[in-house]
Design brief:
heterodimer, A: 475 residues, mainly alpha, two-stranded antiparallel ribbon, 2 strands, 66% helix, extended, B: 126 residues, alpha/beta, 19% strand
Chain lengths: 475, 126
């Protein structure tokens, strides 16, 4: 047999194999489409029924008809019912839950929590989280140490939705260990538990694990646990971890009590770590006390960028008193420049003080410029109806210079969102923070690119488009 | 009496059908589409009394549609409600900055959405 004959034979075999494979693929696709079409056809009447019940039609006959659907028709419509669970609230949500419970979906989900496939376990936790029965919380909490990381995150979110305060302890515990849950879903779940979780959060501040303490103190600030202010102040002063103290400063800013002023002013002293000083400076602005004006005026010329930068924005937040300081900083720098010009070649006073004045003027100029842009952007956005040209101009401005991702971000702002997108933005310490982030910015959720990164965090949040359970809210 | 017409745009078929069902039930004449470009075309072809737009849609977002509509004299004053899962302050600010009249966050209540539609219509017709 010649080499040519062998080559021809091999080519023919290859062509035959390709043809068969192509045929199988086409046939498979045809079968899938046919099944899909059949499912859609079957689901159509039941779907109409489901929409009627969900839309608030109080006719009990409709709900009964849905519950009594035969297995095949229910299978066709069940994905829609489960999918809508996370997208609706109020009466529509309650109606859906009732149908799913009566149909046995909730009971099946309880059994599926132990399913061998992670996707089924996650889907079960997701459904039970939306159904919200407290008696299922312990079984879901067991998934916080699941072998699959997505299942663990879904379980944390489900516990938050159920809202049983008993879940606070396992949630905090889930932050540690080999099979841990990322802090973002844990913090969001803890926030949903509300004030009932406060005792567990306070106890967590004495835990050895730094991430547990950092998350607990952040959540205390986010839920507005005013009665824990003393403990948060103590943590700011005494915690061995800089990261936890940074979180404590942020929490004090959110809590906004007058008593926080003294510990925050102490935290901005030059001997403190840079990240802590930056966070405390920002918190002074959050508190909004004009008593911090003189301290912030000094910090405006600080050699550490994050401190000076945050001081400028904190002054802006103080209102007229802060703006006066910013304008004075600009004026002082101008005066220094003129004096330097008049006394060419001579040193005018203390060169360090002069450098501080120039720095302060730079940060003041930036903050005032950003504030002006924001005001320009916000001003026309209020009226309901307005001329087209005005509206377009506003939108364009908004896209070009956003307070969250525009000039401020360019200047090096950072965000620190343990709790993720549901919480208010909280810039901490600027670029210097990253170097001092002992907890690890990946796990804690530091976000160097602004809020968009946090919003699409794969660890999952309630608005993520795709998660393991496949039933998160989109759009 | 003419029926009040509404254009709904949402790429999620469940939400789109539910909102359409609820609004039809409330007596509105509903046109439902699954993307921003189709919404823009439907609105420009026959301007409705109000539009309900999902923000995150493939191709052209609800925000983009809103801006386009505000730029056209024929639709500059069309009442627009944004329906979205994006609930951060910045997102809401962006929505209103683009010219939206109201902003409904998912998870949402269909009954509340109908009330918002009625309120926006009443406000803009006043």
């Amino acid at each position: 047999m010649t080499a040519a004959a062998v080559a021809t034979g091999a080519l023919l075999v290859l062509i035959a194999a390709t043809t068969v494979l192509g045929g199988v693929l086409i046939f498979g696709r045809f079968i899938r489409r046919a099944r899909e079409a059949r499912r859609t056809r079957l689901a159509a009447p039941a779907r109409r029924l489901l929409l009627a019940v969900t839309a608030g039609d109080d006719d009990p006959v409709l709900a009964d008809s849905l519950v009594e659907l035969d297995a095949e028709n229910w299978r066709a419509v069940e994905p829609t019912a489960v999918g809508l669970l996370g997208k609706l609230r109020g009466e529509a949500h309650a109606a859906l839950v009732e149908i799913l419970v009566r149909r046995g979906v909730a009971d099946r989900a309880v059994r599926d929590l132990r399913h061998r496939r992670p996707v089924r376990r996650a889907a079960a936790a997701e459904v039970l989280g939306h159904v919200g029965r407290r008696e299922t919380a312990p079984a879901i909490a067991a998934l916080l140490t699941d072998a699959d990381s997505d299942v663990r995150a879904v379980a944390a979110r489900a516990l938050g939705r159920i809202g049983d305060p008993v879940s606070a302890v396992p949630l905090l515990r889930s932050l540690s260990g080999r099979r841990s849950v990322p802090p973002q879903p844990v913090a969001q779940a803890l926030m949903r538990l509300g004030s009932a979780a406060q005792p567990a959060l306070e106890t967590a501040l004495y835990q050895a694990d730094e991430l547990v303490r950092a998350t607990a103190i952040e959540v205390l600030g986010l839920v507005g646990a005013i009665s824990a202010t003393g403990l948060v102040e103590y943590t700011l002063r005494a915690d061995p971890s800089v990261e936890v103290r940074v979180r404590a400063a942020g929490a004090l800013g959110r809590l906004g009590t007058r008593s926080a002023l003294a510990p925050l002013l102490s935290a901005v002293e030059p001997v403190r770590p840079a990240a802590l000083r930056a966070a405390a400076t920002r918190a002074l602005g959050d508190i909004g006390s004009v008593a911090a004006t003189s301290a912030l005026a000094v910090l405006l010329g600080d050699p550490q960028h994050a401190v000076a930068h945050n001081a400028a924005y904190a002054l802006l937040r103080l209102g007229r008193a802060g703006r006066t300081v910013l304008n004075e900083a600009l004026g002082a720098a101008e005066q220094t420049r003129r004096q330097t010009g008049e006394q060419t070649g001579e040193q005018t006073g203390d060169s360090r003080a002069e450098a501080a004045r120039v720095r302060a003027a730079g940060y003041a100029r930036e903050a005032l410029a950003v504030a002006e842009l924001q005001e320009h952007r916000r001003a026309p956005a209020v009226p309901v109806l307005r001329p087209a040209a005005n509206a377009v101009g506003t939108a364009a401005d908004g896209a070009a210079v956003s307070p969250t991702n525009g000039a401020a971000a360019a200047a090096g702002e950072q965000t620190s969102d343990i709790a993720g997108p549901d919480t208010a933005r909280h810039d901490t310490a600027g670029p210097d923070t990253v170097g001092h982030d002992t907890v690890g910015h990946d796990t804690v959720g530091h976000d160097t690119a602004g809020h968009d990164t946090a919003r699409h965090d794969a660890a999952g949040h309630d608005t993520a488009r795709h998660d393991t359970a496949g039933s998160a809210v989109g759009g | 009496m003419d029926t009040t017409s509404i254009v709904i745009a949402d790429d999620d078929p469940d939400i789109r059908d539910l909102v359409a069902f609820k609004l039809e039930q409330a007596g509105y004449d509903v046109t439902a589409v699954d993307n921003g470009v189709s919404a823009l075309e439907a609105i420009q072809r026959r301007p409705p009394d109000i539009a309900v737009l999902d923000v995150m849609m493939p191709g052209m977002s609800g925000i983009d549609v809103c801006r386009e509509l505000r730029g056209e004299p024929a639709t500059a004053t069309l009442p627009i409600i944004l329906l979205t899962a994006r609930a951060q302050e910045g997102d809401i600010e962006t929505g209103f900055g683009a010219g939206a009249d109201d902003y409904v966050v998912k998870p949402f209540s269909p009954r509340e959405l109908v009330s918002r539609v009625q309120a926006v219509l009443a406000r803009t017709r006043a």
